[in-house]
Amino acid sequence: MKLSSYLYEDEDFICTNLRGKDKNELIINLLSQVANKDSRVKERFPEILDAVLKREAEITTYIGHGVILPHAKLKNFDDFIVAIGLVKDDIQDKIPGIGNSENIKIMVLLLGDVLRNKNMLKTMGAFSKIALKNPILLEKIENSTTASEIVKLIEDANIEVDKKITAEDILNDQIKTASKTDKLDEIAKRFIVENKTGLPVVDENNKFLGEITERELIEFGMPKYISILDDVSFLTIGEPFEEYLSNEKTATIENIYRKEGVFVVDRKAAIMEVCFLMVNRGITRMYVVEDGIYYGMIERSDIIKKILHI
After folding, report:
1. Are 299 and 275 in contact (CB under 8 A)?
2. Dihedral of CA 261/262/265/266: which sign?
3. What does DSSP say about strands 14-18 and 80-87: parallel, antiparallel, or unpaired?
């Protein structure tokens, strides 16, 4: 199915002049326009508005590049609605995890049934890809003056929205990769600042080499003979992690990053395969790799955020 098939050229569903004094008012005004055309939305307007605003208050759906994706999953809502608003006022929001504030330029409001997560996730993913990877199309949409022009732009882009959720839909491709030449202290700092326990290691051509985790850093600082002992409580080692502290600014991760036993899946791996590996093998993260090239990382939190609590 094409992304354009979800769009209506009616001005009640695509507003090229969305105004408001803040983000919530933008949502209210766009939803009101949809309600003018759709009787089901009109009948349940207070409930739907409350659901959208509550979801937005929990965690902003602003993804950067001027695009925000407010949405709600509703019980017994036998429809899937996509509404687009081009924002004409200077309303800002912060990018999650980064904190930088930017102007909201395009609002995509999505309403669907609680049991139709696939539609919601795939459509949000499609608009996210436009925002992050297709700046030319994004700019053309921002500068459109009619609903039909927006639909035509998305139609010509030929963006597919199939119903199977795959690893590609939930991967995080915004995580900075690590290199073999990275110093130990650089990686340790990233673990703290980025709240990560493992990072992908790639070469200059983005070929996946393995991963570096907290375990390798800790292991580097331990005396080598400790691994053969069953009990180390009797040891009285002088300075803990002396080797690490002496070499953290000069030693690289080249000889310690993990090359074996790293879990990878390809981009089209089914979401159930990903979940099965995480649950049954105790995996906390895996890497999306195809033909040797690294595309992104999936953590358990991505399943929660993008599937269970979309």
Report:
1. no
2. negative
3. parallel
Enter the pTM of the model: 0.70
* 297 backbone dihedrals φ, ψ, rounded to 5°: -125, 145
Contact 158, 2 (CB under 8 A): yes
Residues paired with 20 in a beta bridge: none
Phi, psi of 306, rounded to the nearest 5 degrees: -100, -10
d(CA 71, CA 87): 17
What DSSP string describes 218-243? HHHTS-GGGGG-S--TT---SSTTHH
Looking at the DSSP bridge assignments, the partners of residue 296 are 288
Q: Say if residues 123 and 110 touch (Cβ distance below 8 Å).
A: yes
**The pairing of beta strand 198-202 with beta strand 208-213:** antiparallel
Query: Residue 208's closest CA among 168, 169, 264?
Result: 264
| Residue closest to 87 by CA, chosen among 76, 64, 103, 74 | 103
Residue ranges in the chain assigned as alpha helix (H): 23-37, 39-43, 45-58, 117-133, 135-142, 147-157, 167-170, 184-193, 214-220, 242-247, 271-280, 300-303
One-letter identity of residue 234: F
Gap between the Cα atoms of 213 and 261, Å rounded: 12
Convert the pLDDT of each residue in 9-67 to its tens digit: 777 899 999 999 999 999 999 999 999 999 999 999 999 999 999 999 988 899 889 99
Q: Are 113 and 76 in contact (CB under 8 A)?
A: yes
